[in-house]
Amino acid sequence: MKSGENKLRELISLMIQQNSEDQNGPYKATVLDTAPLTIQPLDMTIDGKKKVPIRGVGQLDMGGSRGLKVGDTVLVIVTANDYSSKDGKAHISDENRQYSIDSSVVLGVVK
């Protein structure tokens, strides 16, 4: 910082980028409740603590698949845009909430 540059913006941008990259892939979770569907991600924080449970998660309907039970280990994805418009109609997504963890969808039970 000899030139007197403020590196705070650069640091914040890097932290946001790294956090976003961590949540783009599928993750495993445990079902805590089925109504509304609430899951507990199995990966821990860097401090070794449980992450916050996610409530109101979506579920992929494969037709004929068994219902989820409390305690099931499930595979979950995070959608690029929020899926709050569950009626299938087009909607405008908030570009600041891409890959938000509360836009998670359970794909199925991991056996």
Please provide a brief summary of the model.
It contains one helix and six strands; from the N terminus they run αββββββ. The chain is an alpha+beta fold.
Question: How is this structure best described in words?
Answer:
It is globular and about 65 Å long. It starts with 7 loop residues before the first helix and ends with a strand. The chain has a six-stranded mixed sheet, with no helix packed on it. It has one helix and six strands. It is an alpha+beta fold and 111 residues long. It has one domain: Beta Barrel (OB fold (Dihydrolipoamide Acetyltransferase, E2P)), CATH 2.40.50. The model has no long low-confidence stretch (mean pLDDT 77). Helix content is 14%, strand content 26%. A hairpin with a 2-residue loop joins β1 and β2 (37-41).
Summary tags:
111 residues, alpha+beta, OB fold (Dihydrolipoamide Acetyltransferase, E2P)
Helix and strand sequence: HEEEEEE
Number of domains: 1
Helix content: 10-25%
* CATH uppermost class: Mainly Beta
On the 0 to 100 scale, the average pLDDT is 77
Largest sheet: 6 strands, mixed
Number of E-state strands: 6
Distance between the termini: 52 Å
Rounded to an integer, what's the Rg over CA atoms?
17 Å
Give the overall form.
globular
Number of helices: 1
CATH A-level architecture: Beta Barrel
Query: What structural class do you assign from the helix and strand content?
Result: alpha+beta
Low-confidence segments, ≥5 residues, pLDDT <50?
none
Could you give the order of strands across the largest sheet? 3-2-1-5-6-4
CATH topology, anyone?
OB fold (Dihydrolipoamide Acetyltransferase, E2P)
